[in-house]
């Protein structure tokens, strides 16, 4: 499939039938627009805080995406994206239970980051604690006006347990993350953009449309290329330089050998594909 010019009238999302593994996911709203699948957290009365059941439902969707889905979009219902961990479930856990619980968050968010398709998070309102950990497991983040970020774990007497010490610190730096956790400091949407917590900034209410626009564009890429980008880049970043360069060569060779990639190169050489242009 060759990339086509973006249509300014985006196709609407349609509800996903509650069938099969999607039949009993009452804490989520599921929609599709062609190759883009939309998962909306649906606990607005709790500011979409992540309970054990909500975590399980997110993980279920990620592990069972239809084969023809090319991009996953995650958002939150109501006034907030996600206010983090549901603290009502924390107080009575033993140390061993807390360890198991943290590892369940790791498994879910690893499935997002290292899953079969790119993930775009639409951020608005509170992106706090575990909500920021969830957002940081996405590959792209679109932040609306009114978005704010916080890591209040230090003031709650707890510690991040959903992968934030790895993912968030890489996005914004360990020093800023330390400040947030020690002091309870929050950052607004513009500060978050400057610090690397979001890739795109849009007006209030415009986040989902922007994510759909991006998702439809990304879905036109060769699937193997998208997979290589989301799978290889974070792993190469963890490797010593020499090992990273070797893996880069492997991934480059694999991607170039894919027939979809060859067709895209032919299209460019035959002037059937658009050239890179300056940003508008």
Describe this structure in words.
The structure is a single chain. 44% of the residues lie in helices and 15% in strands. The chain has 280 residues and is an alpha/beta fold. It has 2 domains: 14-219, 2-enoyl-CoA Hydratase, Chain A, domain 1; 223-269, Lyase 2-enoyl-coa Hydratase, Chain  A, domain 2 (Orthogonal Bundle), CATH 1.10.12. The radius of gyration is 19 Å and the shape is globular. The two termini are 26 Å apart.
Named CATH architecture of the largest domain: Alpha-Beta Complex
Structural class by secondary-structure content = alpha/beta
Terminal Cα separation, in Å?
Answer: 26 Å
Net shape: globular
The top-level CATH class of the largest domain is Alpha Beta
The CATH superfamily name of the largest domain is: 2-enoyl-CoA Hydratase, Chain A, domain 1
Q: CATH topology of the largest domain, anyone? A: 2-enoyl-CoA Hydratase, Chain A, domain 1
Query: Oligomerization state of this entry?
Result: single chain
What is the H/E order?
EEEHEHEEHEEHHHEHEHHHH
Residue share in helix: 40-55%
Main sheet?
A: 7 strands, mixed
Query: What is the overall number of helices?
Result: 11
